[in-house]
């Protein structure tokens, strides 16, 4: 197996872990926002959120970017990267938006942990859909290369 395929496999594994966190964390936020401030439930959710972010999402985020950039800059031909094609720019923009979302979620986690939350459970449930939409865009761009 070539080095490129190892890098690609590790990239996909990292993306799956990162996406799992991006899809689950806002759901935890919704439950946390519904819990009474200072309650045992709120403390449990704060612990779960911290562990998910620091133990899974942050490492997966770093590995996703690392292996992705290796593919783009070390193995561009094998990865099918052609910067003249629109799909590459669309995919890159969606990944950057997902990265921004990751950091926004980290800020929201701090607000909840410090009991400074002003958002409703419904707000977090709506934001739970955003990473799924970005994921669909990214997968279509990479697999279909539509333009």
If you had to describe this structure to a student in words, what would you say it looks like?
This protein is mostly helical. The chain has one domain (3-144). It contains six helices and no strands.
Features:
6 helices, 82% helix, 147 residues, mainly alpha
Helix and strand topology:
Elements: H1 3-34, H2 40-74, H3 76-79, H4 86-113, H5 121-127, H6 130-144
Helix pairs in contact: 1-2, 1-4, 1-5, 2-4, 4-6
Secondary structure: number of strands:
0
Helix content: over 70%
Mean pLDDT: 97
Q: Taking Cα atoms only, what radius of gyration do you get, to the nearest Å?
A: 17 Å
Kindly report how far apart the N and C termini lie.
Answer: 30 Å
Describe the global form.
Answer: elongated
String of helices and strands: HHHHHH
Look at the helices and sheets and give the structural class.
mainly alpha
* Major sheet summary line: none
β-strand amount: under 5%
């Amino acid at each position: 197996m070539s080095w490129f395929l190892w890098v690609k496999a590790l990239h996909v594994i990292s993306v799956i872990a990162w996406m799992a966190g991006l899809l689950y964390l806002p759901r935890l936020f919704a439950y946390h926002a519904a819990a009474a401030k200072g309650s045992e439930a709120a403390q449990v959710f704060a612990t779960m959120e911290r562990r998910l972010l620091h133990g899974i999402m942050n490492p997966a985020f770093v590995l996703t970017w690392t292996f992705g950039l290796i593919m783009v800059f070390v193995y561009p031909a094998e990865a099918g990267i052609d910067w003249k094609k629109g799909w590459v720019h669309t995919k890159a923009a969606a990944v950057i938006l997902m990265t921004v979302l990751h950091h926004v979620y980290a800020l929201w986690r701090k607000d909840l942990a410090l009991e400074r939350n002003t958002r409703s459970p419904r707000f977090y449930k709506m934001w739970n859909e955003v990473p799924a939409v970005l994921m669909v865009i990214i997968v279509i761009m990479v697999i279909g290369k539509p333009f």
